[in-house]
Write a structure and sequence with these properties.
about 650 residues; alpha/beta; Spore Coat Polysaccharide Biosynthesis Protein SpsA, Chain A; Serine Threonine Protein Phosphatase 5, Tetratricopeptide repeat; eight-stranded mixed sheet; about 10% strand; Glyco_trans_2-like; TPR-like_helical_dom_sf
Length: about 650
């Protein structure tokens, strides 16, 4: 005869979760006990729909008391306990029945998959938890929070045998950002655990949980101190020690203490030499410290690690996409784009949804400059056959300023799915950038004043008419926008369009705040993309220099990136008269090199290195400059003295292209 299984739960205001939980155990348990600690929503009614025995229990800030109240009502041979924000994975039902038939086991550790983050980007973290045990009257929970029963069972029954049942899987949604914020879990847990620690200051496990709660509350330095106290003198065989070490590393890192974090991580690797997370965090820390060679070594170690034991609670992707992504970044830092692409492709093969890697691949391929080549390369490696894939690529190309490709992929998407208002507006912007004004205006006219995108649509309509020189239209649209109500900075930027045709130098100057500068720079970027450099310069000249002081290097880079090298050079030289900045010297060196001015290029590369000697790009570009310079001089020498043996020998040692 099969053993009977009782599901025991405590809940409060879990209407949004409890149905999913109870649905997951249908057919897997024989009875459901729900202890409600004060719900004001429909939690109890929903539990009743599934045949649960619902018991009301006044909340006394002690989770063990509530848990034990559910055990008192359970009549099964075994107890399975879940929280409402969890569910039993479908494949676990058969295993649950099979494992509870073993007479030689008193309880099981089972695998739990914690979902972290938010609904836009969810990550997983596996762990082991003690959730299945025999129902005996002497087995009762202990602890006001992070309540324990495994130790209690061993105290009551020294011969009790535990096993791991990784084939039973619980999925936990409670660490999603929305769930945490709605329930204010951080403050609730800290309050309870502080009280418990006051009564049990030597409880190492309780201190570990306290440190974790401090970390979640973003009190990182305090978390590091508490977690270190929990670790000092601990038995190396303690099941949660790997997690404890990782949290100490993360706390020191988040508190801005990278060297301390590295000391703990390296110490942890002596105890757990196959712990991928610690290799990964060493890589992150060395990357943060710009010690790129060591960072690369540790990321490569992380991806070489074997499958991680469940008790390590290893973060998903540390042996895969996370480490490959940072390896790609390091390769880019050393200008090795082929190697970077290889790592980013490995990253996406491990996690096709990790779009930052795809975005970096697209950026390396320079789709704005080489749209056909970028498209061909990407479609050889990836398949964009679904509406979602086409939308994603449209978004990425749009952000990269590759408007023709963005429009193509948005059109692919809208050919099979209804277009959202956002995508419609992005299509209109693409059409404006491609100077297909009539098509753009047809889309913009579809937005009415009730749409939250209407002001942005009207702003693009204004830009569309302005680049065509239609001043009356610009005046009319600006009046309509002002009637809607504009922020002061936005109004100031748009006023520049009215005065842009006044040819008198510096006739009108405005002072902009941060939001105004951001809007202006976005307009300047789009004008440069449309080869409207004169209009961009005119707008910039109408703003007080003080407003733009901290953005001057950004503006110079924009002109450089869009191919207006002469203007970029003027801006950089002006900027460098008042600022000694490594990146500015580097950009000026790049321009000098491209125009054949090798002597000045070498000087600016050297200045960049003196200011920032930790930047590998500066070394690599200077080496490349000297190499090309040498080849150029050697070529000139061979042309002048074609039969001179010394030059022939040098050309054989280093062939001239």
């Amino acid at each position: 005869m099969d053993a009977r299984i009782s599901l025991c739960m405590i809940v409060k205001d879990e209407a949004q979760n409890i149905r999913r939980c109870l649905e997951s155990v249908t057919g897997a348990v024989d009875e459901i006990i729900v202890v409600d600690t004060g719900s004001t929503d429909e939690s109890c009614q929903i539990a009743g729909e599934y045949g649960a025995l619902v018991h009301l229990f006044p909340w006394n800030e002690n989770f063990s008391d509530a848990r034990n109240a559910s055990l008192e009502l359970a009549t099964g041979d075994w107890i399975l306990f879940l929280d409402a924000d969890e569910e039993l994975a479908g494949e676990s039902k058969e295993a649950l029945r099979r494992l509870t038939a073993d007479d030689n086991v008193e309880g099981y550790f089972v695998k739990i998959i914690n979902y972290l983050g938010n609904e836009g980007w969810i990550e997983t973290c596996p762990d082991l938890v003690f959730r299945l045990f025999r129902n005996r009257p002497e087995y009762r929970f202990r602890g006001a929070i992070h309540e324990q029963i495994a130790d209690v069972i061993l105290e009551k029954n020294g011969k009790a045998a535990y096993r791991m049942a990784e084939e039973i899987v619980i999925i936990h949604y409670g660490y999603l950002d929305r769930q945490i914020s709605e329930k204010d879990k951080k403050n609730r847990n800290l309050k309870i655990i502080q009280k418990e620690l006051g009564e049990n200051p030597e409880n190492r496990l309780l201190r570990f949980h306290y440190g974790v709660e401090l970390f979640r509350a973003e009190r990182y330095a305090e978390a590091a101190d508490e977690l270190t106290r929990a670790a000092n003198g601990i038995d190396p065989n303690t099941i949660y020690l790997p997690k404890l070490l990782r949290y100490i590393v993360m706390s020191h890192q988040s508190a801005g203490q990278p060297e301390k974090a590295l000391d703990v991580a390296r110490l942890g690797l002596q105890v757990f030499p196959n712990y991928a997370d610690l290799y990964y965090y060493c890589g992150l820390l060395y990357l943060e410290l710009r010690r790129y060679t060591l960072a690369r070594e540790y990321f490569l170690k992380a991806v070489s690690m074997p499958e991680q034991p469940a008790q390590y609670a290893s973060f998903g992707g540390v042996r895969g996409f996370r480490s490959y992504y940072h390896l790609g970044q390091i390769s880019e830092i050393f200008l090795d784009y082929e190697d970077a692409l290889r790592h980013y492709i490995s990253c996406l093969r491990d996690n096709p949804d990790f779009t930052p890697a795809l975005e970096n691949i697209v950026r390396i391929l320079k789709p704005r400059e080489n749209p056909d080549y970028a498209k061909e390369c990407l479609e050889k490696v990836f398949e964009f056959s679904t509406p979602r894939a086409n939308q994603m690529m449209g978004n990425i190309y749009f952000r990269q300023g590759a408007y023709s490709l963005a429009l193509e992929y948005f059109n692919r998407y809208t050919g099979s799915e209804p277009a959202s208002p956002e995508i419609q507006l992005w299509k209109a912007i693409c059409l404006i950038q491609l100077r297909r004004y009539l098509e753009a205006l047809r889309i913009i006219e579809s937005f009415n004043s009730n749409s939250h995108l209407y002001p942005l649509a009207m702003l693009n309509k204004l830009l569309c008419f302005w680049v065509q020189g239609k001043k009356q239209k610009v005046c009319s649209i600006l009046a309509e926008l002002r009637a809607l109500g504009l922020a002061e900075d936005t109004d100031k930027v748009l006023t520049l369009f009215l005065n842009s045709q006044d040819k008198r130098k510096n006739v009108y100057r405005v002072t902009l705040g941060q939001d105004g500068v951001a809007l202006l720079l976005d307009i300047v970027k789009r004008l440069l993309d449309m080869n409207e450099a004169d209009r961009a310069i005119y707008l910039l000249n109408k703003v007080n220099p003080e407003s733009m002081a901290e953005y001057r290097l950004t503006i110079a880079r924009l002109f450089y990136d869009f191919g207006f090298k002469e203007k970029a050079e003027l801006l950089l030289r002006e900027y460098l008269t008042a600022n000694q900045d490594g990146e500015a010297h580097f950009l000026l060196a790049e321009i000098c090199r491209e125009t054949g001015n090798y002597i000045e290029a070498a000087q600016h590369y050297q200045y960049a290195l003196e200011i920032n000697p930790d930047e590998p790009r500066y070394y690599l570009r200077q080496i490349n400059l000297y190499d090309n310079w040498r080849k150029k001089i050697l070529q000139e020498a061979i042309e002048k003295y074609p039969n001179l043996e010394v030059f022939i020998k040098l050309s054989e040692e280093a062939p001239v292209n």
